[in-house]
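S., here's the first fold you wanted:
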Amino acid sequence: MKTALIALLLLSTPALAFPVTVKSCNREVTFDAPPARAIANDVNLVEMMLALGLHDRMVGYTGVSGWKTLDEELRAGIAELPELSAQYPSREVLLGAEPDFFFAGWNYGMKVGGEVTPETLEPLGIKTYELTESCIFVGPKARSSMQDMYNDLLNLGTIFGVEDRAKDLVAGYEAKLAETTASVDRTNPLRVFVYDSGEETPFTAGAYAIPTALIEAAGGRNIMDDLDKSWATVAWEPVVERNPEVIVIVNYGDVTAEEKIAFLEGNPAFANVDAVKNDRYVVLEYVEATPGPRNIRAVEKLVAGFWGK
């Protein structure tokens, strides 16, 4: 009886489900065992790891303090983990932590043709999973979708042997999103502009960045959804011409959301923009405006800001 019980427990051990293969952008990556020494880059990717309960599989994180700050929720989640690099990590930094896994993305810790890529890390024994939203830099382009975030959580669940946890998490997010948007009237979407940063020229979200999907889920339309990029710099003239009814402010870095709003309201060029005239702004934290668990919270804030619900 005891031998049979032990055999049953062994059969139910997640490690016995390995090897597993997941699609990461234009690559297929096979894992013979769950990673045990993971590193994630940027606050939103770190939070995906925490949401799946993978804190104890991490040896550190990168790419946060150089641009962003950690809120109380995130600080508590990674209190015992070192920040290995304030901005994008070098290969030497990664090697120094002896990781077996790097969760990053293109322009989220890696640059095409740069020093740190899946191809440069693979010979060092470090497997890489790429953030879905960032795949446009290395493969076919696809408009942003809430499914991007779900896809990453489910793939991480497979990689780390916590598939059931990932499926439950995604099901909960899907249910909450459906509840949040159930009464949204989509017949006349609000014109929305995403203001990330920049005064001479604004940095904003295009067709392939997650804010476009968040805005659409909340019953709006990103006025830059014809921009054939994810995040990019544009001129102010088309923003004024397209006359957004609401401006979404991404809050992070040295310039606060309040300072960004003050800039818009103090510039005569924007005096006739509906959003500025009517003081209609929705502030999203960086971790809400990039792919991650707080995307559902972001849609809740957008629905409230768009429709007063």
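And the second, which I think is the more interesting of the pair:
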Amino acid sequence: MSLIKTSILTAISTILRVFTGFIINKCISIYIGPSGLAMVGQFQNFVAITSTIANGAISQGVVKYIAEYREDIDKKSRILSTALIISLSSATIIAILLNIFSLDLSIYILKSEKYRTIFQLFGFTIILFSLNTLLISILNGEKEIKKYVIVNIASSLFSLIFTSFLVIKFALLGSLFAMVFNLSVIFFITLILVTKSPWFNFRYFFRGFDKQSGLKLGRYILMALVSATTLPLSQMLVRDYIANSLDWQSAGYWQGIWYISSIYLMVVTTSLGVYYLPRLSEIKNPIELKREIIDGYKIILPIVIVVAFTIYIFREYIVYIAFSRDFRPMLELFKWQLIGDVIKIASWLLSYIMLAKAMTRLYIYTEIIFSALFVILSMLLIDRFGLIGVTYAFVINYILYFIVMVDIFRREVK
């Protein structure tokens, strides 16, 4: 399936996801406000980190090797069986830890002990989170894009109904509860779709742990763990720094602009994950690889630039419609955030080579260095310029990241 066809299919689910996300975000903005939105952002980052660890951080590896071994049943079944054991083992350990440290996590992450039950509930549902992530990765690797889209659509619709109801009824507590429950329900839909696939066979998942497959997936565990922890953790640190040096309202404004970026870039990042990783994993010829990257720039970057410019023009309307008038101070953040988004996508088109070709060391080094640099730059520039300093830091960080990605591309793809 081509990049254009993949983008069209993922765009369908993404548009629905944007629409449902818009309504959910509007509910949160009205019933919780900027400070509540910041707290939701903190918990979302924690859920992202924890869910990846609970999955064994093997999603990217599963996508790569399922795509690579699609026609080799023996190798593919070894990957599937090994991945299932890793996911279940990791999720069980994390579930136990979440329940043991639920009080400490509630105080540290959400600044209050009254949310302890949320972390305990997360501990009970995280195994289903983990299995759902594994099955989605398998669909991705098998290039079953239509089923991948169906799962995303089902997830969006359920999230809209369930989350909106809980936010309206229970405000912040309802939003947090929805976050730890949504994907657990979607798991059963994903399971049905996977079992109906022509390639599916239960025996593939019960061949025990294969050492060689474990080592292959292990190369991606390090990369995924770093990726899953560095970006959300850097956001948590920056958000916490904004709240402490300015206030939680300001942290909410930054969360708002970050939300807008993530929403409109979702179609791009989804297409990259669904199409690029499997596609780049298949390519062996350096010339073909370069051609694929260039095609990505021709198709994706102009779209991002046009959309970013459009958002900037209508930024005031977007803030009022997506949030409320309480979020008006975030208008000053748009310009540099959107510039940073364009540079970010330009960088990511190159960085996917490191994932596809398992350049473990380079990937880990760059993720850690630039996530840490973002935190440091944010702290320095927030102190110097106020809240807008965090968007200056975002742009500077991705300019430097892009330069490094270009250098890696020239060195590694000859």
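Why I say that: The longest helix spans residues 145-195. The chain has one domain: 3-412.

Talk tomorrow,
H.
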